[in-house]
Amino acid sequence: MPLTDGSFKNKKVISIGTVSELTGLSERQIRYYESRKLIFPERSKTGLRKYSFQDIETLIEIANRLEDGVWTNEIRKELKGRKQLAKDPGFTNQLIKGQLNAQIKM
């Protein structure tokens, strides 16, 4: 049965070399983003980093944000905030309602 729920995007099976080829980032840049706690690869039994398709999307976004002049600590805060939003659908609904109210009152 094929995966249709997107769960394949979170499987950490891609090596750093392949990630480098797909993103255009050097392996050194990718390791730097990990050291700045922007990306969290899993480690294989032999210690090799493994990434997911979602990680690749995040790395591209990180590189674009850095190119726009955003600091790594700000990117980390944004990514952390997104993770919290994904865990709490009620908060997301409140956020949307607040944005709608703000636009209507303008």
From TrEMBL:
InterPro entries assigned to the protein according to its UniProt record, in alphabetical order: DNA-bd_dom_put_sf (IPR009061), MerR-type_HTH_dom (IPR000551), MerR_fam (IPR047057)
Highest taxon above the source species: Bacteria
Membrane-spanning intervals of the chain: none
PANTHER family (alphabetical): HTH-TYPE TRANSCRIPTIONAL REGULATOR TNRA, REDOX-CYCLING DRUG-SENSING TRANSCRIPTIONAL ACTIVATOR SOXR
GO molecular function, one term: DNA-binding transcription factor activity
Name under which the protein is recorded: Transcriptional regulator
Naturally occurring in which organism (per UniProt): Ureibacillus acetophenoni
Entry annotated with the keyword Repressor: yes
Keywords: DNA-binding, Repressor, Transcription, Transcription regulation
Domain HTH merR-type residue range list: 13-81
